[in-house]
Specification:
There is one protein chain. The protein is an alpha+beta fold and about 150 residues long. Helix content is about 25%, strand content about 25%. The chain is built from 2 helices and 7 strands, in the order αβββββαββ. The strands form 2 sheets. A 5-stranded antiparallel beta sheet has the order 1-2-3-4-5, covered by helices on one side. A hairpin with a 2-residue loop joins strand 2 and strand 3. Helix 1 (about 35-50) packs across helix 2. The longest helix is centred in the N-terminal third of the chain and has 17 residues, at about 35-50. The radius of gyration is 23 Å and the shape is globular.
Length: about 150
């Protein structure tokens, strides 16, 4: 009843007491990239061609796409608009969310944010200066753990 599966079969799920699932290789995709991936690619092309900024494009499981411009500067698109968190904080200290509906506007704003980030001294992740997760918490006098 519980025989060893033949070579090439891998049990993936036995929920419901049914037979083990078989593993199949996915057929190569012949579909066109989504509109989000195309728009992200267009943005990366403009950033590279006009501003000399190299950017990577990645498709997300949600169907949106992301353009990685610089450490901490990621632009998202759903195929219609672009949005990202800028490197500067608002007057209240909150992150500033930015968006653009057109490719030229998004590229220009992201190039400005890129220049701000490039001008900053290298600290944090690239230099290995982040605290360990436990270092961010200190016990208070009552024995509770509070964030620093």
């Amino acid at each position: 009843m519980n025989a060893t599966p033949p070579q090439g079969d891998t049990p993936m799920s036995r929920r419901g007491g049914g037979p083990p699932s078989q593993t199949y290789a996915a057929a190569p995709s012949t579909t066109e990239p989504s509109s989000a991936v195309r728009r992200a690619g267009d943005l990366a092309t403009v950033l590279g061609g006009v501003y000399g900024i190299r950017a990577d494009v990645h498709e997300l499981a949600s169907g949106n796409a992301i353009v990685s411009v610089f450490l901490g500067l990621l632009a998202y698109t759903d195929g219609e608009k672009y949005w990202w968190t800028g490197p500067e904080l608002s007057g209240s200290g909150a992150p500033v969310l930015s968006s653009a509906l057109t490719l030229p506007a998004a590229a220009e704003q992201l190039a400005g944010h890129y220049a701000i980030l490039r001008a900053r001294p290298a600290t944090g992740v690239p230099m290995g200066e982040l605290p360990l997760p436990a270092d961010a918490l200190l016990p208070d006098d009552a024995g509770d753990v509070v964030p620093r």
